[in-house]
Specification:
Length: 261
């Protein structure tokens, strides 16, 4: 490494990165010099084109590997196909909003599989290579909902609290081996997963779009502003620098003050 800030020579695998935060994190890691592997469950020309464009923009190596993070074997296959994984960003996630008694069982299972179990499987697949290299970074994209709760998001909140717990255990198991594991806990970031919640929230609260954004979503975020994908990506880059080498097993909130309330 020629300086603390550069990630040249590092390969990052970012799960669920053909949109939103994952894509933003991939951009920031590539901007910092890392080779990046983008992923989602689809295998369309546009997914591969997205990786090519990202690589061109940053003069970085960028590939797209399709793998369904709901499938444990596919999580392992993703890391294997990447060939190398110095930085693992467990980001893939979905959401469903319903009261517990109406929560569809298949949605519960899918959210636990994609938002929590995939991080376990991908981490298990990536750690041997990181240990052999004597360097590694596991960055789990949890949520303010990994530290606090809201009604009607039982599976998401259970998964994100679980992800914070997994982060701590990962950190302890690899402490002293040049590998850190941390969770970034974003507040609301205006990405497709959040956009998709707005119609339901409008219905539930009988409000228009702007009012839902201001009075429901950003009501918990004292800054009154969405966090951005670039800010989440910048935090991930920081966690990969030498300055963050002793930061492990913890959470970093990027939530406009949500969890200070
Ligand atoms: P998004 O919907 O834009 O991104 C989710 C990504 O996961 C997409 O690339 C999607 O293709 C991928 N994905 C979904 N199912 C998958 C599967 N089975 N296999 C592989 N990939 C799959 O949403 P986002 O807001 O960018 O969310 C990214 C992460 O950030 C999620 O874990 C989410 O819980 C977390 N997060 C988001 C916010 C927010 O406000 N947007 C806040 C806190 C945490």
């Amino acid at each position: 490494m020629s300086s603390d800030a550069t990630l040249a020579g590092r390969t990052a695998v970012i799960t669920g990165s053909n949109s939103g935060i994952g894509l933003g994190v991939a951009h920031e890691l590539a901007r910092a010099g890392a080779s990046v592997v983008l992923n989602s469950f689809t295998d369309r020309d546009e997914d591969h084109a997205l990786a090519e464009a990202l690589g061109r923009e940053h003069g970085a190596s960028a590939r797209y590997i399709a793998a369904d993070m709901a499938d444990p074997d596919a999580c392992h296959a993703l890391i294997e196909k990447a060939g190398r994984c110095d930085i693992l960003v467990n980001n893939a996630g979905i959401q469903h909003v319903a009261p517990i008694e109406d929560f569809p069982r298949e949605k519960w299972d899918a959210i636990i599989a994609i938002n929590l179990s995939s991080a376990f499987h991908a981490t298990a697949a990536a750690l041997p290579g990181m240990k052999a290299a004597g360097w590694g970074r596991v960055v789990n994209i949890a949520s303010a909902h990994g530290l606090t709760a809201s009604p009607y998001k039982a599976a998401y909140i259970a998964a994100k609290h679980g992800l914070v717990g997994l982060t701590k255990t990962t950190a302890l198991e690899v402490a002293g081996q040049g590998i850190t594991a941390n969770a970034i806990c974003p507040g609301y970031v205006l990405t497709p997963i959040v956009e998709s919640q707005i119609p339901d929230q409008m219905k539930t609260h009988g409000m228009d779009r702007e009012t839902v954004i201001k009075e429901v979503m950003l009501a918990r975020q004292p800054s009154g502003e969405f966090a951005t994908v670039e800010q989440i990506g910048g935090t991930a880059v920081f966690l990969c620098t030498q300055a963050a080498a002793q930061i492990t097993g913890t959470t970093i909130s990027v939530d406009g003050g949500w969890t200070a309330l």
